[in-house]
């Protein structure tokens, strides 16, 4: 079992390391990050909308016929969770949303998506080493900005620099190798339909986060700064989504008959 998990665990830990580099890049500029937290949030919103519509949602539709229902469930689930957190903190109309609890829904969405990334590593390496490598390289491309996004969300919600780093690391970095470890024993039983449904749920959550909490600062920022930040996020996401790595997650082939070796009979 451990031998079969070595490759996906290695890439899962690599993904966590790359995410941590993104966290360090903004955490080391704490004052600057705090002053520009809203702009980071807007850029993160543009990035998430683009990656979700160009990459995550199409992958969900390709794998699962029920993807639209799961995208809707993810979106509505994000809305309900967000309203629940507002209710728990007693936030009414006109009260600025600048408390750390406001980051719960976005962080949960990022954490679920990163956990699913770990499942993808395990499943694709179970199919073949080549498909696993292609999936890993493609997914690792978005780990650096994912760390920046998680950190920006927490800083915009008023979390301290140290707290933002810690919670962003847990949500965006640690969840990927955790996804590998949890799904590893069951990786041969995860089919395209199930994986597509998980992708769709993740896409719905991320769409809510991107179009709701992350783009909310556009109401207070100047139009020029808001448009520049969103455009920057979209540009980064386009560069990631259009990177020439072919099929981002490889093709899962659970028919292992072709891998059976025929041993000649020398009798």
SSE layout:
Layout: H1 2-27, H2 30-35, H3 37-63, H4 67-88, H5 104-127, H6 129-140, H7 143-156, H8 161-183, H9 192-211, H10 223-241
Structure description:
The chain is an all-alpha fold and 267 residues long. The chain has one domain (2-250). It is 72% helix and 0% strand. It has 10 helices and no strands. Helix 5 runs antiparallel to helix 6. It is globular. The two termini are 34 Å apart. The model is unreliable at 92-97 and 246-267 (pLDDT under 50).
How would you spell out the order of helices and strands? HHHHHHHHHH
How large, in whole angstroms, is the Cα Rg? Answer: 20 Å
DSSP helix fraction: over 70%
Bulk shape:
globular
Distance between the termini: 34 Å
Please report which band the strand proportion falls in: under 5%, 5-15%, 15-25%, 25-35%, 35-45% or over 45%: under 5%
> Tell me about the biggest sheet?
none
E-strand count:
0
Properties at a glance:
disordered C terminus; 72% helix; 0% strand; mainly alpha
Question: How would you summarize this macromolecular structure in one to three sentences?
Answer:
It is built from ten helices and no strands. The protein is mostly helical and 267 residues long.
């Amino acid at each position: 079992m451990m031998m079969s998990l070595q490759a996906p665990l290695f890439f899962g830990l690599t993904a966590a390391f790359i995410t941590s580099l993104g966290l360090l890049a903004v955490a080391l500029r704490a004052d600057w990050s705090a002053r520009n937290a809203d702009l980071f949030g807007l850029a993160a919103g543009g990035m998430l909308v683009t990656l979700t519509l160009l990459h995550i949602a199409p992958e969900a539709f390709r794998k699962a016929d029920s993807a639209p229902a799961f995208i809707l469930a993810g979106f509505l689930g994000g809305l309900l969770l967000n309203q629940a957190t507002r209710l728990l903190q007693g936030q009414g109309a006109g009260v600025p949303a600048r408390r750390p609890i406001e980051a719960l829904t976005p962080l949960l969405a990022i954490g679920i998506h990163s956990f699913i990334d770990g499942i993808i590593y395990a499943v694709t390496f179970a199919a073949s080493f080549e498909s696993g490598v292609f999936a890993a390289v493609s997914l690792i491309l978005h780990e650096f900005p994912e760390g920046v996004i998680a950190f920006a969300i927490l800083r915009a919600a008023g979390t301290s620099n140290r707290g933002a780093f810690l919670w962003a690391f847990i949500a965006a970095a640690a969840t990927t190798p955790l996804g590998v470890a949890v799904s590893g024993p069951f990786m041969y039983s995860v089919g395209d339909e199930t994986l597509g449904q998980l992708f769709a749920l993740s896409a719905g959550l991320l769409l809510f986060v991107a179009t709701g909490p992350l783009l909310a600062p556009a109401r207070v920022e100047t139009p020029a700064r808001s448009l520049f930040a969103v455009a920057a996020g979209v540009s980064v996401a386009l560069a990631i989504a259009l990177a020439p790595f072919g099929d981002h997650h490889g093709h899962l082939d659970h028919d292992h008959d072709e891998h059976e070796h025929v041993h000649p009979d020398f009798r």
